Structures are given as structure tokens and as C-alpha cells.
Amino acid sequence: MKNLIRKTVLLGMLLLLLLPSAVLAEEETTAPTVPTITLSEPAAGDIWESGIRHTIHWQTQGGKDQGTVCLYYKLRRTLGWNTIACVPNTGSYLWEVPGYLNTENAQLRLIWQTQNGNGSASAVAESEPFTLRFNVEPSRPAAPSDLELVSVGSRRIELKWKDNSNNESSFSIERKTTATNWSEIDQTMANQTVFSEQYLEPGTIYDYRVRANNTQGSSQYSNELRVRTDQELVPVKLEFTFNQPTYVIEGEARPMDAAPYLAGDRLMLPLRYVGEALGAQVHWDGDRQLATVAYGTIGIQVQPGKSTAIVNGQETAIDPDNPRVMPEIVPPGRMFLPLRFVAESLGGQVAWDPLLRKAMITVYRLP
After folding, report:
1. What's the pTM?
2. What is the pLDDT of residues 271-294, one digit of tens each?
3. DSSP class of 102
């Protein structure tokens, strides 16, 4: 009898221990209540303009928890869904529609979902097709910028600029000088950002500016750019003949106090007469035994008995094929240099007549 009582007591205690777990298990298997969700805006046939904000509206009925709503869009039925946002279930969302969307078959989808500790649930609502369209009202193009010089010569310039618009049909290039007003000189096609002009006047100042155009009008102007064309160099022809104390410049014979001579197979010319015929400045520093020639942007320094010269700051071989060829001092104190070095250092060309033993040099100088 005592054993029966003891077993009954133990069984009762065991039931008391198991009861809360059973109740909890029953609660955990209770699924959350799924509400009904309805999408009210946009409605079928609505037209929404792309690039601005529109409010999406929906209603949920039933359910014990507010949950979250994820919003999606697609451009036609056969395409996939694109995410807009996942937001609290407040019944509305302000959507900034991307400006590039353009379709008559757009749709929205809303998915309500919850996770409340008793499991998860979801509800789905989709809109009927509606229209998304561009703001088609055209506007003037943005102004170009960063107008700058690419290259310049005596009669030609090349310019470039930055294109800041995506709706221009052309660019207008305008020019003026100190004696003229602004005028359009040319137009380029859309997206073309380089312009070149020929047949300009040498040594002249020109101002340029650019603007973009389309059917709505023209943009503001770019920055203004001032350009000076280079002075045009004119050719000068010189002739030096072996052992003749005269030289010829543009057909006119002039005397020298020292005649060209041959050192091996190299014709040696008097530096001063060549330089002065071109309008170069020639200076002799007796203390340093150094001759200096300045001709436009060209600077040359030579010393007798030295096989290299300094040309525009760079050490240069006087005769790359024969290092024994060096400047020499010849009575009455004239420095002689090889023909080819003199001509090429001054930017000229050389022709040699072996029968007459005459050198013909063409160099270019400012008028």
C-alpha cells in the first residue's frame, strides 16, 4: 500500500513538471495571423512621371503585428522584379522614380512579412499595369568648360574643351581679335570637343570661346582663351665656297676676312659671318676662349680645341662621326666650325656641290 501511494505521488510530480513544456509547445505551433494587403496607388492606367517622387499607398487588414513591407517594381510582365525598399508597414512610401524609366506596362509588388517568435508569414499584393514616362520637356544644354590650347603655329591653332551636356546638337566656336568683335567662325558636331583652324595671321592675338546648342537654344559660353600665333619664319639662303673670301646671302655677295677651308673632308666655315648673316648675336669671350651664339630660341657655346659644344644647355658632339674635328681659330682671329654642325645647330639644311666645292645652307629666321 505504501509503495502504491509513493508511485502515485511521483507520477503526479512528473505530470506537473511536463505540463508547462506541453503548453509552450502548443503555443509555438500557433502560426502568426496573416493580414490581407491591398495596393491602392498606383491604380490601373495611372501615369507617373519619371524623375520625381510619387507616393505608393496600401492597406493591411487583420494580423496581430505590424510587420514589414518590401516594395518592388518591374517594367513589363516578362521581366524580373527590382527592389525599391523594405520599410515599416505604415501604409505609404514616397518613391523617387528613376528618371530613365519609360514604359506603359509598369507594375508594383508589395510583400508583407513578419517574424514574431511564433513563426513567419507573408502576404503579397500586386498592382495592375500603369505608365512611367520621361519628362520629355527639352532644355538648353549645359555650358562647355576648360577651353584650352592644344597647339599653335604661325598660321594654325588647335583647341579643346570639356563637354558638360548630354543633349547638345552642336558646338559653336567664336573668335575675335583686338580689332574685331566676336563672331561665329564654325560649328562642330555633338560630342566633338576639338577644333582646329588654319590660315591665320602670324604673330596675331586671337580670343576664342565656345558654347553648346540644341533646338531650345544655346548654353552659356565657356571660358575665354587668348592665343598668339607664332611669328612666321622666312627662309634665308647662304652660299659658302671653298677658298673664296666672299659668301652669298639671298643672291648678294658679301666679303669676309677669312675664307672657308677643308679639314679632311669637312668644310670649315667662319662662325661670325654665318651668324651675322642670319641676324644672330655672336659674342667672343677672349678670357674664357668661348664663343656664344644666340639665335631666336637657340643658344650655342663652343670653344676651340674641344670636340663638343653646348646647344640649348645640352652637350652635343660637333662631329659625331669624328671626335677629332674641333673648332679652330684662324687668322685674323676667326673661329671656324664644320659646315654641317653650324647649319643643323641653327635649324637649317645643307646641300653640298662637290664639283664647285660649294656649300648651300637654308635656314629660317624671323622677318
Report:
1. 0.45
2. 888 887 777 888 888 889 999 988
3. -
337 by Cβ neighbours in 10 Å (0-12 / 13-18 / 19+) ranks as: buried
Cβ(133)–Cβ(51) below 8 Å: no
Burial class (CB in 10 A: 0-12, 13-18, 19+), 178: exposed
Determine the pLDDT at residue 25. 45
Burial of 212 (0-12, 13-18, 19+ CB in 10 A): buried
Closest CA to 108 of 125, 91, 133, 121: 125
Model confidence pLDDT, tens digit, residues 55-94: 999 888 876 567 888 999 998 878 889 999 999 888 899 8
pLDDT given for residue 204 in this prediction: 94
At residue 115, the pLDDT reads 60
Which 8-state DSSP code applies to residue 33?
Answer: P
Residues of the chain within CATH 3.30.457.10 domain(s) are 234-365
According to CATH, the topology of domain 36-133 is: Immunoglobulin-like (2.60.40)
pLDDT at residue 1 in the model: 53
The identity of residue 230, as a single letter, is: D
Residue 357: C-alpha distances to residues 12, 243, 251, 336 (Å): 137, 9, 18, 17
Would you state the CATH architecture of domain 234-365? 2-Layer Sandwich (3.30)
H or E element, residue 273? helix 271-277
Task: For the chain, give every residue range classified as CATH 2.60.40.10.
Answer: 36-133, 145-228
Place of cell 651675322: 276
Bridge partners (DSSP) listed for residue 283: 292
pLDDT of res. 162:
96
Helix (H) or strand (E) holding 15: helix 2-28
Task: Tally Cβ neighbours within 10 Å of residue 184.
Answer: 10
Write down the architecture of domain 145-228 according to CATH. Sandwich (2.60)
List, for the chain, all residue ranges whose pLDDT scores fall below the cut of 50: 9, 22-29, 117, 119
Amino acid letter for position 132: L
